[in-house]
Amino acid sequence: xxxxxxxxxxxxxxxxxxxxxxxxxxxxxxxxxxxxxxxxxxxxxxxxxxxxxxxxxxxxxxxxxxxxxxxxxxxxxxxxxxxxxxxxxxxxxxxxxxxxxxxxxxxxxxxxxxxxxxxxxxxxxxxxxxxxxxxxxxxxxxxxxxxxxxxxxxxxxxxxxxxxxxxxxxxxxxxxxx
Length: 178
Hints:
The protein is mainly β. It has one helix at residues 173-177, and strands spanning 43-44, 50-52, 62-69, 72-76, 83-89, 92-98, 104-108, 112-118, 123-128, 131-135, 143-155, 161-172.
């Protein structure tokens, strides 16, 4: 999920969130005070700044940059052959900026996620809390969203995203910074 942040590699496990580039999102949640304990198996999973051209997510070019990034990840036992499973948690705030006007929004996307990445490139996320999600194809309109609640995110090998769950809220970041 966070191997590469919201940039071009979001098709690879951001985020992602975020991210989420914005083909995958990042998910995180607050770690205990004092961060990660030695030998705990949790490793830093920092996000990189990213840019998205006009029309790909929003009608205008967008820049994203972490202003708080305490995300950690932990590899878990594989549930099946050809599947890697990773847990993500930690504080993450991404400043998303409209590159034409300078308007920005600080998106708190400090959710937690359990992410399965399949050899085909497909991903299946189980999420609690907010993540930043860039959508090109899927069951949400093209855009950039903070998705919050208890939900799943299914990402096809082609990058189409399907968000489902009993408690899902979306907040359009494109609308916030238009």
